[in-house]
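Table S2 (continued). Query chain:
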Amino acid sequence: MDEQWLAQYRREIEQFTEATKAFDRGELPRKDYKGISGGFGSYAQRDAARHMLRLRLPGGRLTLPRLRFLAEVTQRYGIDPVKLTTCEAIQLHDLTPDLLPVLMEHAVGCNIITRGGGGDNPRNVMASPLTGVQKGEAFDVMPWAEAASDYLLSICRDIHMPRKLKVAFCNGTDDCVHAAFRDMGFIAQPDGTFRLYIAGGLGNEHRMGVLAAEALLPRDVLYAIRAMVDTFCAHGNYENRAKARTRYMQQTLGPDGLRCAFLQNLEAAKLRGGLDLELEPARITKTGTGVLDDACAIPQKQPGLYAVAYHPIGGCLPAGKPAQLAELLEALPGAECRVGPDETLYILNLTAVEAARALQATTDGAQTQFERSVACIGASICQQGVRDSQAALRRCVEAVRAANLPDGALPRICISGCPSSCAAHQAAALGFQGCVKPVPGGKPVPAFRLFVGGCDTLGQERFGEPLGFVAEEQLPDLLVALGRAAADAGLAWDAWRAAQPDALAEIAHPYL
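Corresponding output:
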């Protein structure tokens, strides 16, 4: 961002600081403070004396300067937990009010902006975490993701949208960033263009996106973003926040009407001009030799180079891990970390020897497909939460380990603490949404609503179907029973589901 924008941002931080002090003194109601703080990527937690700060990382890029910042502040101020998010950002939790502006100001020095990290703003722009290095990708989408982020930040003060806007760029290999059902999703194609979907989203009344353009030229990406902002501002719902996300425009305009309105705004934006992009992906000149065989070491398309996947349980980095990773990367020329949408941290551009060192430094991470499960921060911290998804996931991991189930018997699951779908439970093979379970003649019990059959494979995207409500205390037992059935059949989860499509419902029935 240019110096003029940053100067205003620093003045805004001062204003935010005054609002935070007023809230801390009890002079500003929580709802009013939330309306202010969200625009700066911060929210008060369930304990109103503690706060969260969300660090925007366009494309999930945790560059070495950003990692150094994270290592320094987490050590200096004892920050814990540090949460990787499904929007490829990082959340710092349990912060005191006086620490917020200190961190926000310090972060500017390594090009981390928290502005727009929450509230009715353009959120962190996502990209396939292995874009630029992944075998089989159409092309590297990172330059366009970063350009989109810069543009959205540059206009965020000048627009007033009904709700947030989430934008994702997929490199054409898989749709882990959920481009097919974001507010805007750009999917790279082998011919060098993007397939563009708009007005999708998870949560209440979730919807797949509407195909708005089959072959959008990369130079027109910012025009498309401007057109979506204009369409949202013109046709979004400012009266009812519950129906204010872009996906509700599919109801009010119809998919065809929405597409028509967007394309009209796209042509108008192109006529105004000034937003053409001429970008080239960065070239990776590093080379390597040697071969490494490990499930967490992913061969890159660059010969001899690897990316190492590190998934901290629940997406929460252990205390001291940022400093350990920063020290590691200091000794690895050309290496870079990226945050993935499944809360996995990837370390890119490693030789076989370097990748072995990275694997050694990340042995505390998930070792099985199930342990790579996703969970939001949960109700013990989040003021919106209904269930403690982090605690639930930890209990499930412990139970599955104790049952000694083979890797692959259970899929990665996604646990959201409330209907907001922050863990994308509606797109998971097994998804769980925090709620309460009615008990006939008795008191409702803490529970999770079970969703089955979601998929985010590119071209096969679908939402899971609700199956019933599982009492929180029975969730580990249910998962062990399902995993044991697949293991006893000698099959991995997907093969078991295909071979015995009715078995899941039969096994789950006593728990529902």
